[in-house]
Design a protein that fits this description.
179 residues; 1 helix
């Protein structure tokens, strides 16, 4: 739950916004201690963005479930939007959990990749079908990585996992997953 009404804006410190607009060309730069954002558009149809998050404590404005332990977030997200969205992200949680991701849309479809030193997930939606391919190199390494951001009991699992799922998005409302 976002708690804007209780958010102390002092943690943002000074924010500088520089903007420029001329003949359908736009440039906006937002700079603060926590993040820097550059947004540019040569024609107000294509938007290019570059976001650098320096040091953010998401607990200052978001209440996580008690099992989620993320107190520091930093990273870079670069991308563009012109009819479709594309971005690459390099994120670090708690100075030790690293994620690389990319995301591309094409009309109502998408493709994405999320990877960490212990897993690789490729996901895509084409038409009514969602395809997920997940590879876990070693379960005990995944457990170590997840313990950096989650409070989970030691499971003592070993081995690798290769999972391929294909789901019909029209029937997702009837799915139940239990672990």
């Amino acid at each position: 739950n976002l708690n804007y009404e209780n958010y102390n804006l002092k943690s943002l410190e000074n924010i500088t916004i520089d903007s420029f607009y001329k003949r359908n060309s736009l440039s906006v730069n937002l700079n603060s201690k926590i993040a820097n954002l550059s947004l540019k558009s040569p024609n107000l149809k294509k938007f290019i963005f570059d976001l650098n998050i320096n040091d953010l404590n998401p607990k200052q404005f978001y209440d996580f479930d008690k099992s989620i332990n993320i107190s520091k977030f930093r990273g870079k997200i670069k991308g563009e939007y012109e009819n479709n969205l594309f971005f690459d992200a390099n994120l670090v949680l708690n100075d030790s959990f690293f994620l690389d991701a990319n995301f591309v849309t094409n009309k109502e479809n998408f493709e994405s990749t999320i990877k960490n030193s212990s897993f690789l997930v490729n996901m895509g939606k084409i038409g009514d079908f969602i395809k997920i391919n997940a590879n876990i190199k070693e379960l005990k390494d995944l457990e170590k990585e997840l313990n950096k951001i989650l409070e989970i009991p030691k499971l003592g699992l070993e081995g690798l996992v290769n999972a391929n799922l294909e789901l019909n998005s029209k029937s997702l409302e009837n799915l139940n997953f239990r672990f």
